[in-house]
Amino acid sequence: MSNVDVVVTGLGATTPLGGDVASTWDALLAGRSGVGRLTLDWADQLTVKIGAQLKVDPSEVIDRVRMRRLDRSEAIALIAAKQAWADAGLEEAGLDKERLAVSFGSGIGGALTLLNQDDILEESGQRKVSPHTVPMLMPNGPAAWVGIELGAQAGVHAMASACATGAEAMSLGLDIIRSGRADVVVAGGTEAVIHPLPYAGFANMRAMSTRNDEPEKASRPWDKGRDGFVFGEGSGAIVLERADHAKARGARIYARLAGAGITSDGYDIVQPDPECKGGARAMAKAIRDAGLTGADIAHVNAHATSTPVGDMGEIIGIKASIGTHPVITSTKSMSGHLLGAAGALESIATILAIRDGVVPPTINLDDPDDKLDLDVAAHKARPLEIHAAMNNSFGFGGHNVALVFTRA
Amino acid sequence: MATREEITSGLAEILEEVAGVNPDDVAEGKSFTDDLDVDSLSMVEVVVAAEEKFGVKIPDNEVQNLKTVGDAVSYIEANH
């Protein structure tokens, strides 16, 4: 437990449910699905033909010339981060940029640029390859662009922990502020690789849903009919700020980031530990870090991606580290799985659940798994007074991150 | 054989596409970097697009001599 309090003062997102936080949150509470038939011509040649594409294309927000220099994952990271920054009001507050850091990651990074430029190289030769290729595909690109846009001078960090990336970015942001290196950290995750190659790879792992005829029903965490995750794209960003700094400038405070727990499975490159032992240890660490006990956690925004093994393992982990009382949900049932951005978007959902006193629903839970013995906010949003809530994110490679947010 | 005016207007189209330069600002006396704000990476793109549009080869060691739009027009006029 740290004696430095860290709070959330800004939120930003662009997702399959909306081009900003307000529209995304409205859609989540309404139980709307962001999953559809892919609008890309290559989809017909693959076994998986569905996905959760951005509701608002970044080209509608960022001008054409700038887009030529940005990988799609970088463009949407910039969009989310600028929204969060404006929401926090820190430019007007005259923040010393030497006290501003960035912690922003991606699961797969600039693969879209890599693959598109490789096509150009193969078809037209070296001369036609964009001179912007390297800064577009490098995995620290999104974090670096956010840092440049905001003028951050206390360090820019990019992490890669697959589907735990967005949550790990929050955890590192918390550490940076606690260590005294910065007063404010813009933390987030981004992912935009809807392309036939990653689709083929994930499909051949049999990790993705093939419910092509009912896209909006394909992401169904904990349901007996679940057959894999739904690939999505999006970005989420959160402004983390030292509490006394935020209070001194009269900032609007959404919630506290009270604790974080990180563990690794040391088990398998893709399979989660079936009993979620590493996940449970991360949850227990986050609760201890927040100075709480399992009994305090009223709600969990679960990782639950709609895969046969992972969904039920997490249930075991939640029961072991928290108990049987929390109301749980998987917003991936609506947003799809945003991979490296998932932990960022789901942190935002957790924060707003605390603020508004409502748990967003898990849609499509029509026929719950026989082993599901926790209270899920199925089908409809559930009003719930929440003092403390958890967000879980687990990633290929055995990365486990749990975050505890509390009411400010 | 394109006239200098036609080459200038062709370059203006490329500069707008690649770097967002207003075509009205493009004139022979303008410097790519100082007046039109074209950075070194965008200049690479301008050169590649100009080679294609005007059917010329512009070697890398020539590019550094093309400081102004007029320099580029003269090079293209002499070599295409």
UniProtKB/TrEMBL annotation, chain A:
<dbReference type="InterPro" id="IPR016039">
    <property type="entry name" value="Thiolase-like"/>
</dbReference>
<keyword id="KW-0275">Fatty acid biosynthesis</keyword>
<feature type="domain" description="Ketosynthase family 3 (KS3)">
    <location>
        <begin position="3"/>
        <end position="407"/>
    </location>
</feature>
<protein>
    <recommendedName>
        <fullName>3-oxoacyl-[acyl-carrier-protein] synthase 2</fullName>
        <ecNumber>2.3.1.179</ecNumber>
    </recommendedName>
</protein>
<dbReference type="InterPro" id="IPR014031">
    <property type="entry name" value="Ketoacyl_synth_C"/>
</dbReference>
<dbReference type="GO" id="GO:0004315">
    <property type="term" value="F:3-oxoacyl-[acyl-carrier-protein] synthase activity"/>
</dbReference>
<keyword id="KW-0012">Acyltransferase</keyword>
<dbReference type="InterPro" id="IPR017568">
    <property type="entry name" value="3-oxoacyl-ACP_synth-2"/>
</dbReference>
<dbReference type="Pfam" id="PF00109">
    <property type="entry name" value="ketoacyl-synt"/>
</dbReference>
<dbReference type="InterPro" id="IPR020841">
    <property type="entry name" value="PKS_Beta-ketoAc_synthase_dom"/>
</dbReference>
<dbReference type="InterPro" id="IPR000794">
    <property type="entry name" value="Beta-ketoacyl_synthase"/>
</dbReference>
<keyword id="KW-0276">Fatty acid metabolism</keyword>
<keyword id="KW-0444">Lipid biosynthesis</keyword>
<comment type="pathway">
    <text>Lipid metabolism; fatty acid biosynthesis.</text>
</comment>
<dbReference type="Pfam" id="PF02801">
    <property type="entry name" value="Ketoacyl-synt_C"/>
</dbReference>
<keyword id="KW-0808">Transferase</keyword>
<comment type="similarity">
    <text>Belongs to the thiolase-like superfamily. Beta-ketoacyl-ACP synthases family.</text>
</comment>
<dbReference type="InterPro" id="IPR014030">
    <property type="entry name" value="Ketoacyl_synth_N"/>
</dbReference>
<comment type="function">
    <text>Involved in the type II fatty acid elongation cycle. Catalyzes the elongation of a wide range of acyl-ACP by the addition of two carbons from malonyl-ACP to an acyl acceptor. Can efficiently catalyze the conversion of palmitoleoyl-ACP (cis-hexadec-9-enoyl-ACP) to cis-vaccenoyl-ACP (cis-octadec-11-enoyl-ACP), an essential step in the thermal regulation of fatty acid composition.</text>
</comment>
<keyword id="KW-0443">Lipid metabolism</keyword>
From TrEMBL, chain B:
<feature type="modified residue" description="O-(pantetheine 4'-phosphoryl)serine">
    <location>
        <position position="40"/>
    </location>
</feature>
<keyword id="KW-0444">Lipid biosynthesis</keyword>
<keyword id="KW-0596">Phosphopantetheine</keyword>
<protein>
    <recommendedName>
        <fullName>Acyl carrier protein</fullName>
    </recommendedName>
</protein>
<keyword id="KW-0276">Fatty acid metabolism</keyword>
<dbReference type="InterPro" id="IPR009081">
    <property type="entry name" value="PP-bd_ACP"/>
</dbReference>
<comment type="pathway">
    <text>Lipid metabolism; fatty acid biosynthesis.</text>
</comment>
<comment type="similarity">
    <text>Belongs to the acyl carrier protein (ACP) family.</text>
</comment>
<keyword id="KW-0963">Cytoplasm</keyword>
<dbReference type="GO" id="GO:0000035">
    <property type="term" value="F:acyl binding"/>
</dbReference>
<feature type="domain" description="Carrier">
    <location>
        <begin position="5"/>
        <end position="80"/>
    </location>
</feature>
<comment type="function">
    <text>Carrier of the growing fatty acid chain in fatty acid biosynthesis.</text>
</comment>
<dbReference type="GO" id="GO:0000036">
    <property type="term" value="F:acyl carrier activity"/>
</dbReference>
<keyword id="KW-0597">Phosphoprotein</keyword>
<dbReference type="GO" id="GO:0009245">
    <property type="term" value="P:lipid A biosynthetic process"/>
</dbReference>
<dbReference type="InterPro" id="IPR036736">
    <property type="entry name" value="ACP-like_sf"/>
</dbReference>
<dbReference type="InterPro" id="IPR003231">
    <property type="entry name" value="ACP"/>
</dbReference>
<keyword id="KW-0275">Fatty acid biosynthesis</keyword>
<dbReference type="GO" id="GO:0005829">
    <property type="term" value="C:cytosol"/>
</dbReference>
<keyword id="KW-0443">Lipid metabolism</keyword>
<dbReference type="Pfam" id="PF00550">
    <property type="entry name" value="PP-binding"/>
</dbReference>
<dbReference type="GO" id="GO:0016020">
    <property type="term" value="C:membrane"/>
</dbReference>
